[in-house]
Amino acid sequence: MNINWNNINQEQFLNEYWQQKPIVLKAALNNFDDPIDANELAGLAMEEVVESRIVTTKNNEWSVKHGPFSDFDNLPEQGWSLLVQGVDRWNPEVFALRNAVKFLPNWRVDDVMVSYSAVNGGVGAHLDQYDVFIVQGSGKRRWQVGAVDKTKQQKEITQDLLQVDSIDPIIDEILSPGDILYIPPFSAHCGQTIEPSMSFSIGFRTPSQTELLTSFADFVFENELGKTRFNGKDATNETPTILSKSTVENLKTFMLDSLDNGNFDKFLHQFLTEPTRELDIVPSEQEWTEEQILQLCVSDNITFNKALALQTSYFENDGQLHFYCNGNYFSLLPEQIDFIEDLHLHESLDKFQLKSSVSQLENITLLTTLINTGYWYIDEV
């Protein structure tokens, strides 16, 4: 599923719009059909592990209810939206929407949120601190979008619902099925449903400095790192009652050294492969052996599939291959690099793709572990 660049090309988008200004990409996805319908979405919203909410509005009064929901019997005819986060974790067709933005770094994609809105439904005028591509499904919605403005403030008008006071729209358009609206961070926007409508929002991950710093501190603590103490050799050159500029710089350098000794690389790969929401990972009911997996690797009717939205990453350093899967670390041999690239790049592997890897026992050992933990699963075709 690729974007049809009709009014601009991909290079123009990256140079002139990405994280700079919003744009509507008309007819970006040909003959677009909803990959999930409203009933299926409602079913997901009834699950404990799925994050969902219903936002209602009437006479400019707003309310928010969080799932899981047991029923939807008391909803009014108009003025409400059901929003479900991380649907790409549970539905392969929704997950496939991520291919539309595969020209951007994979680690940046957070999830696909799906919403169903009744007439006049929406969440009001608001802004996000991350990029989003909104794919219009069935129905029609009017979108007003303002320019990027980092000074614009939001306020909580009711619990768990932030809005801005107003928008000066530079975009005011009605979206039809297959249209895509790109909205950069800090660009206020408001969608209003004209007729019952499905929307698919591909949201991007933008970790904050606080998130990175606190997570790195946790990583250092959990791995019993960072135990080197500041030596303070320059203390004899200081006035006892004054914290000198040189000491401040030395302490700053001392802290930054923890980022330069290889720890930060390991942390970042682990951090960026940890799931931001629940994944559909079920450990194998059968404890597979390496011998059994090896036999399956050469079978004509078997494929090995990656759990939806599972993140992997890897890097080589000092003659060692470091592989990360779902926030877990695997130390591997450099000779396994081709196999790791296959695991990283592909959502599914068959015997032809595995042909060059099955002769190496370490690859079979890793694949067996990934299958038994549920990160990958076996499918018979």
Number of helices: 10
Morphology call: globular
**Mean pLDDT figure:** 93
Order of strands, main sheet, comes to 1-11-6-13-5-4-2-3
Beta content comes to 25-35%
SSE sequence, one letter per element: HEHEEEHEEEEEEEEEHHHHEEEEHEHHE
Number of strands: 19
Describe this structure as you would to a colleague:
- By secondary structure, the chain is an alpha+beta fold.
- It is built from ten helices and 19 strands.
- It has helices spanning 10-17, 38-44, 92-95, 209-222, 245-260, 263-273, 290-297, 337-345, 351-354, 361-373, and strands at residues 23-25, 52-58, 61-66, 80-84, 109-117, 132-136, 140-148, 155-158, 161-163, 169-175, 180-183, 187-195, 197-204, 302-306, 312-317, 320-325, 328-332, 348-349, 376-380.
- Strands 1-11-6-13-5-4-2-3 form an eight-stranded antiparallel β-sheet, covered by helices on one side. A three-stranded antiparallel β-sheet has the order 10-7-12, with no helix packed on it. A three-stranded antiparallel β-sheet has the order 18-14-19.
- The chain is globular and about 65 Å long.
- 31% of the residues are buried.
- The mean pLDDT is 93.
